[in-house]
Amino acid sequence: MSTTKVAEPTLGSKLAAEAVGTFLLVFSIMGTGVFGAFFMVPEAAPVGGTVPIAVALGLGVALTIGVYAFGPISGGHFNPAVTLGLAAAGRFEWRNVGGYLVAQVVGGLLATTVAMAIGVFGPDGWLAAAQASGFASNGYGDHSPGGFGLVAAMIIEVVAVAIFLWVIISVTHPDRPTPFAGVAIGSTLFLLILIAIPVDNASLNPARSLATALYGGGDALMQLWVFIVFPIIGALIAGYTYRAVFDNVKR
């Protein structure tokens, strides 16, 4: 019987996959949450539930695509919180964490920079209105879509990211892998984003928050720390507790 060893992608290929996958996620936010929200002119921005559903669905679809397209190369993290959570769970080597985080941040920043470049050539006043609205940045208090405060943003980020990581770790478990894991992961993100948007515009991803805050104005940058620190806390909680909670087996 012959055995064919599958070639391991180089670190460069893995980092490129993480950057492109993160670009896809963040660009989907810009497309659905900024371009889609404002249509052609600032006055056309819709209200109500249409935009949150579009953003959540866009992100879920984008992540599903990214997992299947680039997951075989890099593992399909596309999120610093996911990388750190998987490392905490023993499913990713700590020595590779730094490179992944840089690639994810670069991919996210490229996505919002491209969105800015498109906006420069948009209708008069469109870009200024989009930036004045926060450019899809996360926020609490006056910058929360539903008027929720700082503590609410902290709680939703920790809880949502912890659930997200538990799902990711479960459906990609080496001993009990789940068929169509990418669909489960993308669907989970869709649900969690839909829940979190009214609270703080749904971060769940520090690279996404940094990328939008860069062009979202001073208030977005001032509040950015929340959307870096608390998704990471949620991810580390999930990573460090997964084996103790879910990997118990009968002896």
Automatic annotation (TrEMBL):
Main subcellular location: membrane
Entry GO CC: membrane
Residues passing through the membrane, by range: 20-41, 53-71, 101-121, 147-168, 180-200, 220-242
Subcellular location: Membrane
Membrane topology: Multi-pass membrane protein
GO terms of molecular function: channel activity
Domain of life: Bacteria
Assigned keywords, A-Z: Membrane, Transmembrane, Transmembrane helix, Transport
PROSITE patterns for the chain: MIP (PS00221)
Assigned protein family: Belongs to the MIP/aquaporin (TC 1.A.8) family.
Record PANTHER family: AQUAPORIN NIP1-1-RELATED (PTHR45724:SF13), AQUAPORIN NIP2-1 (PTHR45724)
Protein name according to UniProt: Aquaporin Z
Organism annotation: Microbacterium mitrae
